[in-house]
Each structure stands twice: as structure tokens, then as C-alpha cells.
Specification:
five-stranded mixed sheet; binds zinc ion; alpha/beta; single chain; Rossmann fold; nine-stranded mixed sheet; 13 helices
Length: 508
């Protein structure tokens, strides 16, 4: 038991550093919008669900980016938190990220021949939202991505300020913004479109997703082979380097060749039923691939026999069109949360004590002046212990809120059955009431601590909870106690916890 309680505290602490959506699924902000030629949104899908919409002109992707916390620099990257304004030198740090994202949007558009655009790109500072972000942006890392990861819990693109190559590349230097943005475009090929690499690796005896020594790139440029020449203004027809390989521009001696057996464009157009299955566990690379059907109209025409491939080129003339849906949003760091605790009878073997202890850790960790907290608990019925209340800086009425919350927690006893869904809905209602009353735009989340399946909800179901949280853009972070953890709901939200050893080390 002691072990479990310690482990729990760590989950909470690391979880809180990553604040929003610790084990929750993909970000509630991540979604795809189908947009008509006149700019009207006709369909909104939660991330990862295939779309079929005949009037759609383009698919607009809303994604999230979590930028690491620079220790000792509380507001990194510095700037005006507004991508449409440039304050000059004061804004340089944020402008670097903004420029990279703009080139990223260009690459996505060029690669898909305009079928896909970046939409709202939310940038979270201080490592917030890390476990559910589409792009985890660290200080130093190799750019990489989970293949077909978009919309799947725990999958993402890894990116960084500095790429530790033989000669390290600082993406934030103005001379490298374009390169960095196009590199994100390459990762998009993996993460959203399910394609594999087409370049030569360093070692011969590697398997699966890793390029091998002796691999041969397609004969003509491909973004999955080498995207960097696209950033070099002196390279002829440079934007070809942002396009996918085609039937007449294909190499079987690549990861793409081994795992999909066909070129990039042929993969994009193929039904996912045809994806190769390669080994028991490594199917992850393609099993979640999504066929984006409106790519079909954008494929390049086949080249005449013996001729170089055709490319459909959008840039640079189409740059404004490629960026027409792009909105870069610096998400504010304010946090509103509700802790929802299961106090049913099955929590009596120490589980409730652990949940109370973990809740107190959370309450002490939130930052004053930026946070508001509420508390609810449920057994046979649902109780509101404290409506969402700001934790203010001293002096102020919010100073005693932490003590009030802890006092309420100490009064919890384990009894009754488990109205899990109703309690989870209550937590969401509390957040929505606060937002409506105060017109805030904070990150919002619910920490749910429970050990058992729902036995007594009167109005809510797992399905209604999932739908309502999604609609309200609230992250649900469930923490399961014991073997009878609330299966239906928690399984859908909680998948892989994010392990960040670097951060653990810092804390330890
Ligand atoms: Zn790659």
C-alpha cells in the first residue's frame, strides 16, 4: 500500500507540472474541420475519425503544441502572447515559434496539394498540456513522430528548439525557421498521414520503422526523404522537396517501401484495409492510419513513360491560401480545475486516504493568482463541497481557499454506491458555471479519483460524459485506484501516462 501511495503522489506531481490532461486522451482542442470553398465549416470531427464529405474543399486541422518549461525563466518564450502583433525585440522569442508554425502550415498545404490546412494552433507554455499535445516541443531533441498518431491517446510529434545532429541545428535562429517548419511538415507525413521515411539510415541491421544503411531514396525529391532543400532559395524548383513520392518516383529500399510497399501518394489514396501487417506488435505504425478521402482529387497526374514525375506546386504563389485558416494562439496559463473524489464504500481500504492525500498535494501545487479550484465528491449521491473559487494572492479572500478545501477533504468517509458518471458530469457543470459567470479562457480540467465502475448514476452515461467534455473543451484526468478501476470511462480517457524522466529527475 505504501508503494501505491507513493506512486500515486508522483503521478500527481508530474501530472500537475504537465497540468492539463495528465492521462487524458488526445487534446480536446485537437480536431479536424471540413470547410467549403467559401470558407463555411460543414463538419467538425474529433481527431482521427475519417471524413467523407462531398462539399468539402479542404480539411482544417486544429492542433496543440506544448512548449517545455525553461527552468528559472517563468514566462518562456517571452513575448506579447499575440501572433498578430510584433513588439520587436521583446517579442523575438515568440516570433521564432510563430514563424516556424507558418512554414509548417506551408509544408502541410504543399505536401497535400492544398487538401489539408493548419487551422488553430494553440501553443501552451511551461509544459502545460504536454501529455495530450499533438507536438511536444522540448529544449533539445530529434524531431520524430508516432506514425498515424493523430487522434490517438499518447501519440504525438516530438520537436525541439535544438536538433542534436552532428552539427546541431538551432531551429529558433531566423536562418533556420523555414527548415524547422518544413521538418514539422515531414513529421506531419508520419503523424497524420501514416507514411514512413524514405532516406538512408546509419546502420544496416535495424528493423521496423528505422531507415537502414543502404536504403535508397526515391529518384526525385520527396518530403519523407529530405525536406531541407526546400528551404534553400538557391535550389531549383525547391518546393518539389515538400511533396510526397509518387508511383513513378518510388524506391522499395526504404522504410516506406518495406512497410507500405507503394509510394507516398499511393498510400494516401489506398484503403486502410490494404495496409501491410508487419509482425505482431509493429502494426502500430499503420493500423491506425486514416484515409483522408478528399486527398483523392489532389493527387498529381501520372507522368508520361520515361518522364520525371509531375508535381503539383502551391508555393510560393499560394502561400496566402495555404495560411488562410491558420490562427496561432498563445494559450494563457490560467487554470481552472475541479477535483472529483469517489467516496463510495469500496474506497475504504486505504484508497480514500490516498485520494485525499493526493488531492492535498494538488491543492498546494496550483499557482496562486492564476488558478481556481472546486471540489465535488460522489457515492450514492453527488455533493458539491466547494464551487470553483479563485486562489488569489495574499492578501485576498482566496487565501483561505486551500485550507477550506483540505478541511472538506478531511471530512470524507467511504460509504454508499458509486454515482461515477453523475459525479463526473457535476464536475464539468461546476467548471462551466464558473466560466459562464466570469467569461474566462483558462485551461480547464477535472481530476477524477475513483476505484470502481459506475453503479448508481441517474442521469449521465459514459457516452454522455465523453461527448460533454469534448464539447466543453475540458480535459478529464482520471486516476484509477485498485483493480476495479472504473473501466468504461477511465479506459476511454486514460491511456499511456506521459513519462518524462528529465522532469522527474529535476523534482527528485
Ligand atoms: Zn521521419
Amino acid at each position: 500500500m505504501a508503494y501505491r501511495s507513493t506512486k500515486f503522489a508522483w503521478v500527481f506531481i508530474t501530472g500537475f507540472i504537465f497540468a492539463s490532461a495528465v492521462q487524458a486522451g488526445n487534446s480536446p482542442y485537437s480536431k479536424v474541420r471540413e470547410v467549403t470553398p467559401s470558407g463555411k465549416t460543414v463538419q467538425v470531427m474529433s481527431a482521427g475519425k475519417p471524413m467523407v464529405n462531398r462539399v468539402s474543399n479542404r480539411s482544417v486541422f486544429d492542433i496543440t503544441v506544448s512548449i517545455y518549461e525553461k527552468l528559472g525563466v517563468p514566462n518562456y518564450p517571452a513575448g506579447d502572447d499575440d501572433a498578430d502583433v510584433d513588439l520587436g525585440a521583446l517579442d523575438d522569442e515568440q516570433n521564432a515559434y510563430e514563424e516556424i508554425i507558418r512554414f509548417f502550415a506551408d509544408a502541410v498545404c504543399e505536401a497535400t496539394n492544398g487538401a489539408q490546412h493548419l487551422g488553430e494552433v494553440r501553443l501552451f507554455k511551461r509544459g502545460l498540456h504536454a501529455s495530450s499535445a499533438d507536438i511536444l516541443w522540448r529544449a533539445r531533441d530529434w524531431p520524430s513522430a508516432h506514425t498515424s498518431g493523430f487522434g490517438t491517446n499518447g501519440r504525438r510529434i516530438f520537436f525541439a528548439d535544438v536538433f542534436p545532429m552532428a552539427t546541431s541545428v538551432n531551429a529558433l535562429l531566423p536562418v533556420n525557421h523555414e527548415k524547422a517548419g518544413y521538418t514539422l511538415g515531414h513529421e506531419w507525413g508520419h503523424y497524420v498521414l501514416g507514411l514512413f521515411d524514405e532516406y538512408e539510415g546509419d546502420e544496416a541491421n535495424v528493423r521496423g520503422l528505422v531507415p537502414r544503411k543502404g536504403d535508397q531514396a526515391p529518384p526525385f525529391p520527396s518530403i519523407m526523404s529530405n525536406q531541407w532543400p526546400a528551404a534553400n532559395a538557391s535550389v531549383a524548383d525547391r518546393f518539389r522537396y515538400l511533396n510526397f513520392s509518387q508511383k513513378d518516383n518510388f524506391s522499395s529500399k526504404t522504410v516506406q517501401g518495406r512497410l507500405h510497399g507503394v509510394s507516398g501518394w499511393e498510400t494516401l489514396l489506398a484503403s486502410t484495409d490494404t495496409d501491410k501487417k508487419f509482425g505482431k506488435t509493429s502494426t502500430a505504425g499503420s493500423k491506425n492510419r486514416i484515409q483522408y478521402t478528399n486527398l483523392a482529387e489532389r493527387q498529381p497526374a501520372a507522368a508520361a513513360a520515361g518522364s520525371p514525375p509531375n508535381y503539383r506546386i502551391e508555393l510560393p504563389a499560394g502561400r496566402n491560401t495555404c495560411r488562410q485558416d491558420l490562427k496561432i494562439i498563445w494559450q494563457q496559463n490560467e487554470l481552472e480545475m475541479v477535483i472529483a473524489v469517489d467516496t463510495s464504500i469500496s474506497m475504504r481500504f486505504g484508497e480514500l486516504d490516498n485520494a485525499v492525500a493526493a488531492s492535498k498535494v494538488l491543492i498546494d501545487l496550483v499557482e496562486e493568482g492564476r488558478s481556481a479550484i472546486g471540489l465535488t465528491h460522489f457515492e450514492t449521491n453527488v455533493f458539491i463541497d466547494q464551487v470553483v473559487t479563485p486562489i488569489t494572492k495574499e492578501p485576498g479572500p482566496g487565501v483561505s481557499v486551500r485550507n477550506d478545501l483540505k478541511f472538506a477533504l478531511d471530512g470524507f468517509t467511504a460509504e454508499g454506491s458509486t454515482a461515477l458518471f453523475d459525479g463526473t458530469q457535476q464536475a464539468l457543470d461546476m467548471l462551466n458555471d464558473f466560466k459562464t459567470a466570469n467569461d474566462t479562457s483558462a485551461i480547464r480540467l477535472v481530476f477524477l479519483l475513483s476505484d470502481g465502475a459506475d453503479t448508481n448514476s441517474k442521469t449521465s452515461t459514459a457516452a454522455s460524459i465523453l461527448a460533454n467534455y469534448q464539447t466543453s473543451l475540458v480535459s478529464l484526468s482520471p486516476f484509477a485506484y485498485g483493480d476495479d478501476a472504473p473501466e468504461q470511462l477511465l479506459r476511454q480517457f486514460a491511456q499511456e501516462p506521459l513519462v518524462c524522466t528529465e522532469l522527474l529527475r529535476t523534482l527528485l
